[in-house]
Inverse folding.
């Protein structure tokens, strides 16, 4: 038995040696792309706080960065819908948007008449806001939907009057000179920390009365918050422009016999 054990031990040592050797023989893959150093962004102190590179649209004091912001009621750090839609004075393309909202604690109305508002990306692609807590309506119009295009994957609504969060990342569509879409828009939505839209491909404008269709527009457009006749409350609204990191790709290798510069 001792001889067998010695044989097995020797084989094991040999196999380990081969494995170590093969690991040492591996070479690191390098793409050759030269990347710039990612810039430093300081996260907020608490989840939901704006990071250091965010543009704060509403800090509880003023809506000066939005047209018609003076028409909404601001009290105790909260803005309440009143009078009209409000639209950012600045324009945005690819972006990350955070906002917090609360539908009225006193429930009035049903369906689309209950706690209705909306976030319009590029002033035309709506992420629906609605009191969808125990409130039936058409599914592609409930809270978290991309209006009239797709329902949320799940209903993550809190009770009326409770604060809720939207965290949205948006990729703007691209158009050719002829007005045709060369790259569609995409939206990802987290509602109260739950992913309800996962890189959904937008089919065009989110219309109520006609099929979705793209209409050529500028590379950057404003964000709009909707007045739908219900006193929705908002707080802590900020946005980040998304700028992809671009590396320098290596020059293609010359084929044998090809002279430099050819």
């Amino acid at each position: 038995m001792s001889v067998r054990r010695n044989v097995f031990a020797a084989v094991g040592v040999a196999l380990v040696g081969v494995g170590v050797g093969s690991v040492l023989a591996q070479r690191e893959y390098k793409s050759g792309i030269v990347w710039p150093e990612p810039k430093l962004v300081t996260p907020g102190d608490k989840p939901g706080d704006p990071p250091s590179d965010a543009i704060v649209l509403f800090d509880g004091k003023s809506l000066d960065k939005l047209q018609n912001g003076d028409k909404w009621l601001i009290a105790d750090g909260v803005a309440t819908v009143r009078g009209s839609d409000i639209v950012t004075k600045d324009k945005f393309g690819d972006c990350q948007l955070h906002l917090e909202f609360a539908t009225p604690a006193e429930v009035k109305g049903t369906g689309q008449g209950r706690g209705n508002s909306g976030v319009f990306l590029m002033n035309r692609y709506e992420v629906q806001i609605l009191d969808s807590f125990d409130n039936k309506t058409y599914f592609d119009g409930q809270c978290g939907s991309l209006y009239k295009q797709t329902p949320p994957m799940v209903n993550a609504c809190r009770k009326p009057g409770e604060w809720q969060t939207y965290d949205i990342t948006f990729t703007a569509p691209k158009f050719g000179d002829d007005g045709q879409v060369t790259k569609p828009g995409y939206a990802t939505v987290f509602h109260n920390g739950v992913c309800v839209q996962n890189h959904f491909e937008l089919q065009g404008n989110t219309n109520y009365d006609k099929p979705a269709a793209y209409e050529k527009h500028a590379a950057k457009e404003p964000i709009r918050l909707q007045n739908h006749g219900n006193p929705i409350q908002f707080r802590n609204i900020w946005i980040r422009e998304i700028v992809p990191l671009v590396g320098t790709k290596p020059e293609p290798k010359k084929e044998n016999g090809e002279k430099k510069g050819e």
About this structure: The mean pLDDT is 91. The first helix runs from residue 2 to 25. The longest strand covers residues 233-241.
